[in-house]
Amino acid sequence: MLTPLDAPSRAEHAFLAASDRCAFLAQYLGGRGYQAGGCNQLIRNFKCEPSAALGNPRRQRYKQQAIARLARWLRGAISREQAECCTWVPIPPSRQRGDPDFDDRLSRTLNLAFNAYDVDVRALLYQLQSTVPDHARQARLSAQALYENLRLDVEALMARPVRQSIALFDDVLTTGKHYKCCERRLREALPCTPIAGVFLMRRVLQVRR
Asked: Is pTM, for the whole model, over 0.70?
């Protein structure tokens, strides 16, 4: 089930504003690691770096299984009509193309989820330089530094018109920084196109009772 963020949930993601339209499929327990099981283990396998999976057949298998499972969730949560009216834009990974750890898991998940649909999945954004992922660094990259490292792929944008709206797609919503920086870049070229965020999971620091 795709769950829209309500006001209390949105407030847990520091960079999001009241006007942001975002939705998610499941919740990830922040600070608990894979030991928390369930979604935490699933997202750990999903985010396994390509270089780590390459030399470990078991981790490679777990990563493929995670992609397939999350793709099934996405297909079950979004109707064909909803999928086909959007241009789906994966939020770019921290590594630039050509880097051994460049990971196209988001594009693969979208294409698998919407197989046989008339969907528009386009990598309209990319990072100019590889960066260390936020979860692996002591001090997180600032929003301005991230924005300045993001680029719009003009050739991909001009290849065909975008659909009625844009769905920025990512695996985990944490602070909302990546979503907002990507939205900002897209709005420079597409100021009138509605943009929303779709996330496989959102981070929660504790489960509400």
From this structure: yes
